[in-house]
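Quick illustration for those who missed Monday's session on complexes.
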Amino acid sequence: MQIGIVGLPKSGKTTLFMAATRGKVQKGSNGELVRGIAKIDDNRLEKLSEIYDSKKTTSAEILYLDSPPPKEGFGKHVGIEGNLLAHLQGCDELIIVVREFSDASVPHINNTLDPSSDAVELLMDLSFVDQGILERRLTKLTEGLKSRKAIDKKPILREQDLLERISRSLNAGKPAHEVLKNEQETKIIKGFGLLTTKPLIVAVNIDEASIDRSTDIEKRVSDAIENNAKVVPICTKLESELSEMNTQDELDFRNELNIKESGINRLVRASYDSLGLITFFTTSADETRAWSIKKGTEAQMAAGQVHTDMQRGFIRAEIISYEQLIYCGNESIARNKGLLRQEGKNYAMQDGDVVKFLFNV
Ligand SMILES: Nc1nc2c(ncn2[C@@H]2O[C@H](COP(=O)(O)OP(=O)(O)OP(=O)(O)O)[C@@H](O)[C@H]2O)c(=O)[nH]1
Ligand SMILES: [Mg+2]
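Prediction with guanosine-5'-triphosphate bound:
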């Protein structure tokens, strides 16, 4: 899974990116965007690792991509195009960063401070890109229609109708994904890389002083956008400072500031939800590890995440839910109680499943 970060210049994209990835980033070569891996915090992982006395504990991960500052320097808002567009098209989700923090030393591109209107502007940028893609495709389809026999025109006309509906919806400020009625329509537009078919999150980069008003700010921005994107207020500067501390200092600091949950965790959770992801665990004395997969993924496909051999030679999966395992205290008690289920290749994995894949290659 990869998530692209977009936003107006100096909105705090890189600060959010550095906080989410705790600075573990790779500089992109050849005009590639900067990439970084965010580890997904999950309390369950440590507990499982203790039960199995694992040597190593590995979190699930999400890849973030940071949009670069405009080549021309600050001052002109350049749209989404070229390399940036190509990278964003390859993302599973986009995060739009809008600025609420005020800082005289960091100018705002529009000389305003209005996260709602910035969010609307960014959503319009995404729609504009999609309109361009649709227009080019519609022109091609019209050309194609001229040379076809009536019988061959049907699929083209169906596609044309769909693209025109999407285009009208975009004009009304609504994202492409709201138009799609069934699997078939989703399939037709799959290869086009429309940005507004992707789940969107609006991260409002707030001042530390605004933390108490988070709920208000969230509601205001949510109301302003004609989009069901999830809005997450987050103080990126503070989060980025906290992410550089060791775990105990970070915890003490959060308690002092009365911030119960890290903003980055809330953001990652929002991503998880909008991408429809769940977590399953594999455990052994060597390693306890969390994996993220789409809700509804079948056991054999899930096995493929761990190792292709496990998918190829899949026999069955031995599964217990995290809650049941914790309740029992360890695996042998759970086994004696008959709580380890044997599931076949079509079993739909559930969040919190602790799994052993049995396979034969
Ligand atoms: N006071 C304050 N400054 C912030 C906050 N968030 C970011 N900044 C500062 O704003 C400046 C721009 O932040 P960046 O994260 O680089 O913004 P960006 O969107 O990546 O900017 P470009 O890549 O240049 O478009 C930096 O100097 C940050 O330290 C905040 O919440 N409060
Ligand atoms: Mg930046």
